[in-house]
Amino acid sequence: MKTSILAFLFLSLCSNLNSQTLDEAISKMDNERYAEALRSFKGLSEKSPNNGDIYYYWGLCYHKKGEQDSSLLTWKKGYDLDKTSALSHAGFFRVKWVMADKPAANIALTSALELTKGKKLVAKRAEVLRALASAYIESEIKDLDQALTLLTEAIEKDPNNEENYLLQGDALYAKTPQDASLAIKSYNKVLEIKPKSPRGKLRVANIYRAAQNFDLANSIYKEAVSIDSTFAPAYRERAELLMRFEKMNLAIKDWKKYLALNDNIESRYRFVSAMYIAGQYCEVIKEVEQLNQQGFRNFYTERFLAKSYGECKEITDGPRLGLEASDRFFALAPAEQINYIDYRTRGFLLVNMGKDSLGLLEMEKAINLSQEALKDLTFEMVKLYYKTKKYDAAISTYQKREKVIALTANEIFNYGQCYFFGPKNFVLADSLFAKLNQMAPTYANGFYWRARSSFQLDLNNEKWLAKEPYAKTLELIPVEKRAEGSNKKMVIEAAKFMGNYYAVSQEKDPNKTKEYFKIVYDIDPKDEQAKQVLGIK
Fold it and tell me: In 3-state terms, what secondary structure has residue 217?
């Protein structure tokens, strides 16, 4: 009898120790220490290879980490190994639900609930209900009403469990994002039942962050940190808020606090990703180099380096180092992971090294990948083609661009100049400048170039096609600004044309001729033609 009691106590102690270890692994997961949590779940599975509960949370950790395939495989394995665990069936339910196999998912759901009937299984049933509800909330295929029904029962069974209210808040917010009051009420309930938990506050702050309410979101993040200064996700979430509102120095401080609590490669990689998205390229280079020193390198980090070396002004040899990183990226990246931005980055690195033609070849590859690429890159490409006087290539690029997006006035202007300087197609140039005049009726330069292209169509001034646009050019440039910058050339050219018009056309008017050449003389007293017309020696 005594031996039996000791054996029972030993088994109970072992069970309690396993439970505590599982709780510790789940705590690591909740604190976003995913690599440590995964190692813990793996170790637990080695000790208890047929424990479906372990596999459920192991799969959930992969899910939170963003590794969907691994999560589904883990849940499937847990189900295959332990069909006595209700959580195994909950994991298998998630597999089938994600795969849109609703009949099989419903069978798994029913099995999970059947295994948790009875008064002795109240806590376990609530745990399983939460697991099932989370699938309805977090999957792309959602059933928020069903999730809320399951959570109502979970709350009845286990009213003091914060996970109930966190999930309920998630479901309510997803259902009515335009009115988050009920979700906030659920999240605030967490603090009532567990005063030392910051997780509810964090969810509320995230709602205000999504609503672009910086002050309120920041205030609530501060409350979350004050409740538990060791809860790492609070610093990450607040850092993302600060980044959204371009408070980068403060954001980096919070990221550093997050890393102090979660100082591992995975967290640093997350930090690097955030800095990259925020355009903090010099910081990215420093962090990726640290990751590389620890043996961590993948095609994503090479992508980060390629772009960052090209953008960071603190690196003197950035384009060359960026191109080397780009070489490594294209060597490592699977074809399906390469996007047009990668070609764009490579193209501009080459351009910044003075290899414009090679850079443009990379961009040509990119614009064939998607309409988005065509819209994004052709603007930069035409500028480069124009700069290198490859007008025909610029025209071809504009022709592609105008099929997917309305050209701006500035683009129409450059487009017209390409026809003017390149193939010297003055008809098309004139047509584009005429369109520009309609789009920008106060833009003097547009009328000036319309006049120039019109003149090329009427070199002998048989129709005086350039008269109206030259006159408009003079009208649009204020008298006090006629001698400034590029205005000087435009005004002199336009005034001379108008002076000649009144000198030799059917509307001869010596006074007007002198009036226009006086404009020329006032700007350039050394102009010989103006002096001659005005009788000045």
Answer: helix
Q: Residue holding tokens 């065509």?
A: 374
What is the rounded CA–CA span in Å between residue 476 and residue 172?
A: 59
Q: What is the largest CA-CA distance in the chain?
A: 134
Written as one string, the DSSP assignment of 450-505 is: HHHHHHHT-TT-SS-TTHHHHHHHHHHS-GGGTTSHHHHHHHHHHHHHHHHHHHHS
Instruction: Identify residue 253 by its one-letter amino acid code.
Output: K
* Confidence band of 12 (pLDDT split at 50, 70, 90): very low
3-state secondary structure of 391: helix
Q: In this predicted structure, what is the pLDDT of residue 20?
A: 54
Q: How far apart are the C-alpha atoms of 311 and 101, rounded to whole Å?
A: 47
- Please answer whether residues 496 and 520 qualify as being in contact, where contact means their C-beta atoms are separated by less than 8 angstroms: yes
One-letter amino acid for residue 89 of the chain: H
Residue 16 has pLDDT above 90, yes or no: no
The span from the CA of 263 to the CA of 257, in Å, is 10
| Residue that wins the pLDDT comparison between 18 and 425 | 425
Tokens of 536: 């000045």
pTM above the 0.85 mark?
Answer: no
